[in-house]
Amino acid sequence: MIGDITAADDIYIVCGYTDMRKSIDGLCAIIEDKLHMDPRSRALYLFCGRRSDRFKMLLWESDGFILFYKRLSAEQGRYRWPRNKDEVRNLTWREFDWLLSGIDIEQPKAIRAS
């Protein structure tokens, strides 16, 4: 199915700011050159801009890339995106859900899945 993100084995959040003008090729270059990872792996890569009100997700399917783009409306607020620019983090599906719900993924009191 086109754009089935549940097919991803891993979810990686690229911390810091990403230029939201970048297209698939530019985001793949970040994954390869900066993160030293393979953009064609069965992973979902998340990128966020400086305003924190929009993000992009890149997913490889068997025949090509899918780029998802979401922008919140003005009254919806901002995403709580980690800003350590030299970091890429592997997220759980729970943390992914928190992130897209506007909840900080750094939940010190939350029960971590083992």
Write structural notes for this entry.
InterPro entries: Transposase_IS66_Orf2. It comes from Butyrivibrio hungatei DSM 14810. This is Transposase. Pfam families: TnpB_IS66. This protein has 114 residues and is of the alpha+beta class. The protein has one domain. A five-stranded mixed β-sheet has the order 4-3-2-1-5. The longest helix has 11 residues. It is globular. The model has no long low-confidence stretch (mean pLDDT 85).
Structure in a nutshell:
Helices cover 17% and strands 27% of the residues. The chain is of the alpha+beta class.
Keywords, please?
5-stranded mixed β-sheet; single chain; 2 helices; alpha+beta; 114 residues; 5 strands
